[in-house]
Amino acid sequence: MKSFILKFIIFTLILIFQGCSTKTISDIDYNKYNKLSNNLDYNKIYDNLLTQYRDWRGVKYKYGGYSKSGIDCSAFVQRTFKEQLFIDIPRTTTLQKKLGKEVELDKLATGDLIFFKTGFKTNHVGIYLKNGKFMHVSTKKGVIISRLNNPYYSKHLWKIKRVLY
C-alpha cells in the first residue's frame, strides 16, 4: 500500500510540474505553424511588431520586469513573440540565443532576434524590424526603436538568430 501511495504522489507531482512548464519554440506544432511559415508575410509580421512597439513605447527598463511598470529586454522579446506572433519562446537571453538558426547580417529579416554582447557576462536582445532598425528595451530610454548602424550597437553586435522560417 505504501508503494502505491508513493507512486501516486510522484505521478501527481510530475503532472503538476509539467502543467507549469513553459512551452518553447521546439514544442510548437510545426504542422499547424507551417501554414504561416511556408508563406511568411513579412509585412504582416512587421505590422504586428509595430503594434507591440506602439503599445509599449517608452515603458521603462527594469531588470527582471515583465509588465508596463518596467520590463527587461528578454521579457519584451518574449511578450512580443507571444502577443503578436503567437509563438512561445523562453524568458531569458541565455535560452533565447539557442533558438532557431544563426544568420548573417546581410540576411536579416523582419522578426529576427538580434543579440549584443554588452559586457563580460551581459547580453542584450532586440527584434529586427527592417531598414536597419530594431526594437528593444534600452536601460536609459525604455522601449525604443534604434538603428543597427549606431556605433554602440554595431560595435556590440554578437549574433542574429532566425526563429521564423
Brief overview:
The chain has 165 residues and is of the alpha+beta class.
Summarize the SSE layout with pairings.
Blueprint lengths: L1 H19 L9 H8 L4 H15 L9 E2 L2 E2 L1 H13 L7 H4 L4 E2 L10 E5 L5 E8 L2 E6 L3 E6 L3 H6 E6 L3
Helix pairs in contact: 3-4
Describe the structure.
The protein has a six-stranded antiparallel sheet with strand order 3-8-4-5-6-7. The protein is 39% helix and 22% strand. It has a single domain (39-162), classed as endopeptidase fold (from Nostoc punctiforme) (Alpha-Beta Complex), CATH 3.90.1720.10. The longest helix is centred in the first third of the chain and has 19 residues, at 2-20. The protein starts with a helix and ends with a strand. Strand 5 (123-130) and strand 6 (133-138) form a beta hairpin. It is an alpha+beta fold. The protein is built from six helices and eight strands, in the order H-H-H-E-E-H-H-E-E-E-E-E-H-E.
From the structure above, extract its key features.
165 residues; endopeptidase fold (from Nostoc punctiforme); six-stranded antiparallel sheet; 8 strands; globular
Low-confidence stretches: 11-38
N-to-C SSE string, H for helix and E for strand: HHHEEHHEEEEEHE
Q: Quick check: average pLDDT? A: 83
Tell how many strands the DSSP assignment holds.
8
Largest sheet: 6 strands, antiparallel
Give the oligomer, counting copies of the same chain as homo and different chains as hetero.
single chain
Which percent bin holds the helix content? 25-40%
Shape: globular
User: N-to-C terminal Cα separation, in Å?
Assistant: 52 Å
Tally the helices: what do you get? 6
* CATH topology assignment: endopeptidase fold (from Nostoc punctiforme)
Structural class: alpha+beta
What fraction of residues sit in β-strands? 15-25%
Q: How does CATH name the architecture?
A: Alpha-Beta Complex
- How many domain units? 1
Highest CATH level, the class:
Alpha Beta
What would CATH call the homologous superfamily?
endopeptidase domain like (from Nostoc punctiforme)
Mind telling me the C-alpha Rg? 18 Å
Q: Identify the strand order in the major beta sheet.
A: 3-8-4-5-6-7
